[in-house]
Design a protein that fits this description.
three-stranded antiparallel sheet; about 35% helix; Alpha-Beta Plaits; elongated; about 375 residues; eight-stranded mixed sheet; alpha+beta
Length: about 375
């Protein structure tokens, strides 16, 4: 008899022997295996190496994911085993895009999901692009060959912050926040609608530090802002659907007919004085979600595309929020000004969830009081 433990670690494993040891080369390198026998039946045991594994300390990146509806009654236990294996295998192959070996990151099983902590030198932009893109492909490949009950929908959350391994697990407020994001209702709604069966949520810190700047191959227009309220957590976060159509954070009624900028003019009052200040600031918040308009040059280009009478009348400001407020307010004082404003926004930014949300905010805000003409 012999003793050992199997921790279910992603990646390379080392086996320990009671009778005979030998080296076996595998796809992840060499490992030590041992074979014991009970009667004539060979028995192997796998244990995680006690040394050589990276332990989180200080600033780290967190990736947590889980399988939506894992406990659904339609899944028998053997199906759950298969789906879990697909998640682990796909995640391991995806994380290989970082250039790390499996023993250079830290992971813990979460039953229907997994928690991964990565060293600070792993760029978040590569996690949000190369790793997420590969993970999307892994989900697609699995689902193409799976029965209905074995198909997988994956929720993924990212955060950055301090972490400490205390000998039993990871302790860190940022990690707790990542799990709150993973459990957020908007993310659950997004993955349920996602054609690609995967949805990603990032924390405010990740968005501010990485996404909003468009670092690497990250496209800020792929993300939309949501409100997260889980347990004691109340914060903003941003969601994206890799390789699929952008989904709205919640069902939003549309102006009757097509809700493009050409329809917005039908709901616009004649003067800015007719619109509550709070509603104007909601439009400004949506504009600030578009990185181009947070910088002065982007706002100058936007104003330059407006008719001269509007551009000359706006009381501009060096501060982004005040500047955008003045621009929107001035556009409202000119017939068709807001429609021209939206056309200019589209011209510079193109189609994105942020632009779509801006259109919806304007349409909802500018309908006359008491008008319930939403479809």
């Amino acid at each position: 008899m012999f003793r050992g433990t199997n921790h279910g670690r992603i990646g390379r494993r080392m086996t320990v022997a009671s009778d005979a040891n030998f080296l076996r080369a595998g796809p992840r390198g060499c490992r030590v295996e041992s074979v014991a026998t009970i009667g004539e039946v060979p028995v192997t045991e796998t244990v995680r190496p006690a040394s050589g594994r990276w332990r989180p300390s200080g600033t780290c990146s967190f990736l947590v994911c889980d399988i939506a509806a894992f406990s659904d009654a339609s899944r028998a236990d053997p199906v759950r085993v298969r789906v879990r294996k697909a998640m682990y295998d796909g995640l391991e192959r995806s994380l290989a895009c970082t250039g790390l070996r499996p023993d250079e990151w830290y992971d813990e099983d979460r039953g229907d999901g997994v928690m991964v902590v990565l060293p600070p030198h792993v760029g978040m932009e590569s996690l949000l692009t190369a790793v997420v893109d590969r993970l999307r492909a892994e989900v697609r490949h699995h689902n193409e060959a799976a029965s209905e009950a074995a198909r997988m929908r994956l929720r993924v959350a990212f955060n950055v912050g301090e972490a400490e391994w205390d000998g039993r697990g990871i302790v860190g407020t940022a990690l707790t926040h990542a799990f709150r994001l993973l459990d957020a209702t908007p993310l659950k709604e997004a993955v349920a609608q996602a054609e690609t069966a995967i949805a990603v949520i990032v924390s405010k810190r990740v968005f501010d530090d990485v996404v909003s700047h468009g670092r690497g191959l990250v496209d800020p227009g792929d993300y939309h802002r949501v409100e997260v309220r889980v347990k004691e957590t109340s914060d903003q976060a941003w969601i994206m659907v890799p390789g699929g159509r952008l989904v709205r954070p919640a069902p939003v009624p549309a102006v009757p007919g097509e809700a493009g900028p050409e329809r917005v003019q039908d709901a616009v009052p004649q003067m800015a004085a007719d619109v509550p200040v709070a509603q104007l600031f909601r439009m400004v918040d949506d504009l600030l979600d578009i990185p181009r308009f947070r910088v002065e040059r982007g706002r100058d280009q936007l104003v330059g595309a407006l008719p001269k009478e509007i551009a000359g009348a706006a009381a501009r400001s060096a501060e982004a929020r005040a500047d955008l407020f003045a621009i929107v307010q001035t556009c409202l004082d000119y017939p068709g000004g807001l429609q021209q404003f939206l056309q200019a926004v589209r011209g510079f930014v193109g189609e994105s969830m942020a632009v779509r949300r801006l259109e919806q905010t304007i349409a909802r805000s500018l309908l006359p009081p008491g008008d319930d003409g939403w479809s």
